[in-house]
Design goal:
The complex is a heterodimer of chains A (about 900) and B (about 110). Chain A is an alpha+beta fold and about 900 residues long. Chain A is about 50% helix and about 15% strand. Chain A has five domains: about 70 residues, no CATH class; about 190 residues, no CATH class; about 230 residues, no CATH class; about 180 residues, no CATH class; about 190 residues, no CATH class. Chain B has a three-stranded antiparallel beta sheet with strand order 1-3-2. In chain B, helix 1 crosses helix 2. The chains are: A alpha+beta (about 900), B alpha+beta (about 110).
Chain lengths: ~900, ~110
């Protein structure tokens, strides 16, 4: 505690600095006077007495300084001095300061913004108890429902129950439905439905995560132990705030999802968003209610309805390896013992081969992460390069300024200032600049990361990600800022204080010769050019990939198609009921009849919306010869709406009904795969099930279309009519002419005139839907183009600055050359040549760096190679032209030098 | 006579100040310097000014505390006074000093 009291005393002194000086002064004066009187008393003259007193006292100034230094605050004082001095110096050259601050703000701001997104998507751990102990069965990159045997991604509810009861390695185990249910439900007492994002979870979900309710309670195992009779929900804090205005009486309120009314039993804490980064359910409902929550999936007691993710918390001291062994043992045992397991040779082999991997999930799961981790890493590298270029620029500006200050520094050193003290001062100035830039950067980032999030969200509602400025982010920014200051400040500081004193003092203002050349400044410009080339070529490659993606032959006509989604299951329609089919048909007919509408149809999928696939079999083949086909359930007008050309056979018609023979239209690729010989029309195959409607007959073949993403090879697709195969809709497409907004309004009005309670969401165009499939590529292309241009711009400022400086320094030489008969064009060329040499050296260094760097991004490229020569040549040419323009101004200035003035200047 | 701070053994200035204050209770800077010289029969002469940085260091350590008062001649002066920590420090320094002096004396006598 002694050091604390000591610190207190030191701080006290710091606050009363003025008092301290006065006290010391008075005390010393008294001492001198008393000694003087004493000396007079023993007979000295007043004058001698004073000298004697002073002699015996010692050097008063030094002693005062020593007394002050004893308190250990002189570093702070010199820091304040340096800061004040630095601010004054910055204000003296406002143009330089503004350029430096702006480039720093952009550089640091961009780094902060990209890092905030990178952090939110990839690095941040879940806001739950001990997230490092949480693991997931499987890899967590699947969602949906499957009945495949021995899948390791998705599990059935009975499997979860058995795993939880029989394992010896988890302190608790939980399951969640692999998708969220997009329901339109009613808050009790409200007439209008509202969108509610429901996450079905096991009763152990919150307990396993260690999340406690903010209000009320979370779910528990009892909520989940029998099917269909636990209508309870825990709502998210965000939804409580948004929809219920933080009603304190929330536990007495109820919700209606589908036909069932749910009691709200609790509110989750504000920071909790579930375990999927980038998704934030509005509420959590026990899996026991899976059949009641629209779209009424079911499967609570089905051993083979595999739709759940299973996560667990490791018991303390259990390693992942031990847990993996136990889980795999149980996986085998449980699957073999399940009633209804078909243990034929094929399934046995499958079971022998299958191994369940355990995935740590401290940072949660995220489809966002798969999509954006590579783009974000690329962008992080891009903005780091931009910041380096900005640093090189500022280092250059500081170098130029420190050369101008060479005399001041030489004088100070000659007067006895230590070199370390001067370096400290110069670095303090750099830090000051960097901190000001960093503060501006943070302000910029807080705007930019919202913009980024919008870009990442691809035109839909913003993805629920927390990208606001937080402590971790600020620490990152401060680290970046200090690193920046050290990078751009150290070299100029060391150079400026390394002087041959006498030379500098002698040379005076017009110091010539060596300083006219400036190898360090030129090296900086060369590195800027090299970095800029890397960024330009990268940006060029990404932009051209984007153009290629836009020009992909997608197989259907994506222009002039409106698409929206209705939520028929929330409105109470069941796919199997005739009234659902009647509803769809009525909507299609009425909308098709609207003016400016050419065709309209429902479909299970359009593009990039997931899939329903199964292995199909020709009569008489074995299961392992099955071909995997993606199915689409559509309306009769689908091909016409999407303008997918029919190659042979016929389209669906009104005669294809639930009672007629099940029909199918297949894609060209399916036809080639299933029926390599002969005409496929009239042939039939089985969808894998054993019900009569699973045997379908081919009535037509259509052109291949892209289905999941633009880069895919042709896939096997087939189309079936909803009149024969029930489907909950879902997607609705309308081919229109004219104005989108008026057609959209008319279509929605027509749908609501048929059923007022049918929720309509996500009204957009098919074009946008397609574009959303390459949001990540667009993000990288747009941002890298922006930063590439920024880099070139910064490099131009660098070139301009250095060349202006060189020209000023060489005014004399130029004057003499011109006096000796060199023409103006020759002078112009002399300067331009120097710039071109600098840029060329930069390019020569930049090309191999570019080729090496671009190989890392080849995954993000589409339709071209990373070594694409066109992009490389174009970027180089652009860089040369822009550099020549930046250098032209100083070059022109050189050519306009008046020899007389230049020589007189000496 | 030329004065030099090396004339008192290094490190003993604190000890001298502590001891002087312990004896007198309360003194200002001039009195401390004067007292050290007088009691040592003018053998120990500090460079008087160096008292002040030393006093500041002792203030930081909390061995002494200072307050302003009036001298006999009715002038404002800063008076220093030992604290409890100061008294403890005096004991430590004294015993250390005696140990060193004792050792030196023994070496000298054996020679």
């Amino acid at each position: 505690m002694d050091w604390l009291r000591e610190l207190g005393r030191r701080l006290c002194m710091l606050i009363r600095r003025r008092q301290f000086d006065a006290d010391l002064e008075e005390e010393m004066r008294l001492h001198l006077e008393l000694r003087e009187e004493d000396q007079m008393r023993i007979g000295l003259t007043p004058e001698d007495a004073r000298y004697a007193a002073l002699r015996r006292f010692g050097n008063e100034t030094l002693l005062k300084e020593e007394s002050y230094m004893a308190w250990g605050w002189e570093w702070l004082e010199s820091f304040f001095q340096d800061t004040a001095y630095g601010s004054r110096a910055m204000l003296r050259s406002p143009a330089l300061t503004i350029v430096a601050l702006l480039s720093l703000a952009l550089g640091i701001g961009a780094n902060t913004a990209i890092f905030s997104l990178l952090d939110a998507v990839m690095l941040r751990t879940l806001p739950v108890k001990d997230p490092a102990q949480l693991i997931l069965l499987g890899k967590g990159n699947a969602s949906g429902i499957t009945d495949d045997f021995a899948r390791t991604q998705l599990y059935s509810y009975p499997f979860y129950r058995r795993m939880r009861a029989e394992n010896q390695v988890f302190s608790d185990t939980a399951a969640m439905f692999s998708m969220t249910n997009d329901v339109h439900g009613y808050v009790e007492g409200r007439a209008e439905s509202e969108p509610m994002n429901v996450q079905l979870v096991s009763g152990t979900y919150f307990g396993t995560l260690g999340v406690r309710a903010l209000v009320g309670r979370t779910l528990n195992d009892a909520d989940d132990n029998s099917e269909g009779d636990h209508p309870v929900a825990v709502i998210s804090y965000a939804w409580w705030k948004r929809s219920l205005a933080r009603d304190p009486n929330v536990l007495n309120r109820t919700l209606k999802l589908g036909a069932t009314t749910y009691n709200i039993v609790g509110v989750a804490p504000p920071e909790f968003f579930g375990i999927k980064v980038g998704e934030a359910p509005d509420m959590w409902v026990p899996l026991s209610m899976i059949k009641q929550v629209p779209p009424n999936f079911g499967g609570y007691k089905d051993n083979f309805s595999e739709s759940l993710l299973i996560m667990a918390r490791l018991k303390p001291g259990i390693s992942i390896t031990e847990a993996t062994a136990n889980v795999n043992l149980l996986f085998r045992q449980i699957l073999i013992s399940f009633a209804g397991t078909r243990l034929d040779q094929e399934n046995r082999q499958k079971l022998d081969k299958t191994k369940v991997p355990l995935t740590p999930m401290a940072t949660g799961l995220s489809s966002l992460r798969r999509q954006f981790s590579e783009p974000l890493q690329i962008l992080m590298a891009v903005v780091a390069l931009v910041l380096l270029i900005a640093c090189a620029n500022i280092a250059n500006l500081l170098l130029a300024r420190s050369t101008a200050r060479a005399r001041e520094l030489a004088v100070r050193q000659a007067l006895g200032a230590r070199r370390s003290r001067l370096i400290r001062q110069l670095i303090t100035e750099s830090l000051l600049l960097a901190l000001a830039g960093g503060a501006l950067g943070v302000a910029l980032a807080s705007v930019a990361n919202r913009l980024l999030l919008r870009m990442v969200s691809g035109g839909l509602d913003p993805i629920p990600l927390d990208v606001s400025i937080n402590t971790r982010l600020l620490l990152f920014t401060i680290a970046v800022t200090i690193a920046t200051a050290l990078i751009f400040g150290t070299v100029p500081a060391f150079r400026a204080t390394r002087l041959q004193l006498t030379d500098t003092l002698k040379a005076g203002r017009g110091s010539q010769g060596a300083s006219g050349k400036n190898p360090l400044a030129k090296a900086l410009v060369i590195s800027q050019v090299a970095f800029s080339l890397v960024l330009m070529v990268g940006a060029g490659l990404f932009l051209r990939s984007l153009v290629n993606l836009n020009n992909v032959d997608i197989g259907f006509n994506k222009e002039n198609v409106l698409r929206l989604e209705i939520d028929s299951s929330s409105a109470g329609y069941k796919a199997e009921e005739p009234r659902a089919v009647a509803l769809y048909q009525q909507i299609e007919e009425r909308v098709s009849a609207l003016p400016n509408v050419k065709a309209a149809s429902f479909s299970a999928f359009t593009f990039h919306e997931g899939t329903w696939d199964s292995g199909v079999a020709l009569p008489g083949t074995k299961t392992n010869e099955h071909v995997d086909v993606n199915h689409n359930v559509v309306g009769a007008g689908y091909l016409e709406t999407m303008q997918i050309p029919l190659l042979v056979g016929r389209n669906f018609s009104s005669s294809d009904t639930s009672t007629s023979r099940p029909v199918v239209i297949i894609s060209e690729h399916t036809a080639k795969t299933l029926f390599p010989m002969g005409n496929p029309i009239g042939r039939h195959y089985s969808l894998g099930g054993d019900k009569p409607e699973d045997d379908v007959t081919v009535i037509g073949v259509v052109k291949d279309v892209k289905f999941q993403d633009l880069a895919e090879e042709p896939m096997s697709l087939d189309y079936m009519p909803y009149s024969q195969r029930p489907w909950d809709y879902g997607d609705f497409e309308v081919r229109y002419t004219g104005d989108f907004a008026s057609v959209a309004a008319a279509v929605q009005q027509t749908i609501h005139s048929i059923d007022r309670n049918l929720p309509i969401t996500r009204v957009t165009t098919l074009d946008e839907q397609v574009a959303r499939s390459f949001t990540n590529q667009r993000l990288v292309a747009q941002l890298s183009a922006f930063f590439g241009l920024l880099a070139v711009f910064l490099s131009c400022i660098g070139i301009y600055g250095v060349m202006s400086y060189v020209v000023t320094r060489r005014t004399n030489e130029i004057g003499i050359r011109m006096a000796l008969g060199a023409g103006r064009p020759k002078m112009l060329w002399m300067v331009l040549r120097e710039i071109l040499i600098l840029v060329s050296v930069g390019v020569v260094i930049g090309v191999p760096a570019t080729l090496a760097g671009d190989r890392l991004v080849s995954n993000m490229l589409f339709g071209l190679k990373p070594t694409d020569p066109v992009t490389l040549v174009a970027a180089t040419a652009l860089l040369l032209i822009v550099a020549a323009i930046a250098g032209y101004l100083p070059a022109r200035r050189a050519s306009l030098v008046d020899p007389m003035v230049a020589l007189r200047y000496e | 006579m030329l004065l030099h701070r090396d004339e008192i053994p290094p490190g003993t200035l604190y000890l001298l100040i502590l001891k002087t204050l312990a004896r007198a209770g309360e003194m200002h800077g001039y009195e401390i310097a004067d007292s050290i010289q007088k009691i040592s029969d003018d053998v120990l002469q500090v460079e008087e000014g160096s008292l002040y940085p030393a006093l500041q260091r002792m203030l930081i350590k909390g061995w002494v505390k200072a307050k302003w008062g009036t001298t006999a001649g009715n002038r404002r002066a800063r008076y220093y006074q030992l604290t409890a920590a100061g008294r403890k420090q005096l004991e430590t320094e004294l015993s250390q000093f005696e140990r060193v002096i004792g050792a030196i004396t023994r070496v000298l006598q054996t020679a």
